[in-house]
Amino acid sequence: MNAIEFILAGMLAAAAPFLLAALGELVVERAGVLNLGVEGLMAFGAVIAFIIVYHGGGHILAFLAAGLGGILLSLIFAGIILGFNANQVATGLAIGILGQGLSALFGKSYESLTVKALPKISIPGLSDIPVIGGLFTQDIVVWLSLLVTVAIWASFAYSKVGLVIRAVGENPKAAHAIGYPVITVRFAAVAFGGMMAGFAGAYASTIYTPLWADGMIAGRGWIAIALVVFGTWLTGRIFLGACLFGAVSLMGLAAQATGLDVPSQLLACLPYLVTIIVLGIISADRRLLKLNGVASLGEPFER
Amino acid sequence: MSRPFFAALPIILVRRERASLAAALLAPPIALIVTITLNLSLYIVMGRDPAAVIYAMLIEPFFSWASFSEVLLKTGPLLLIAQGLAIGFRAKVFNIGAEGQFVLGAIFASAIPIWWPEAAGQWIWPAMLLLGTIGGALWASLTAFWRVRLNANEILVSLMLSFVATQLLNYLLLGPWKDPNGFNFPQSVMFQYDAMVPILIEGTRVNVSLILAVLLSIAAWVFMQKSFSGYKLQVGGLAPRAASYAGFKEGWAIWLSLLIGGAAAGLAGAAEVAGPLGQLQRSISTGYGYAAIIVAYLGGLHPIGIVISSVVMAALYIGGDNAMVSANLPIAAVRVFQGSLLLIYLIAIAFVRYRLVWRQTAIRSPT
Question: In this predicted complex, what is the ipTM?
Answer without folding.
Answer: 0.94
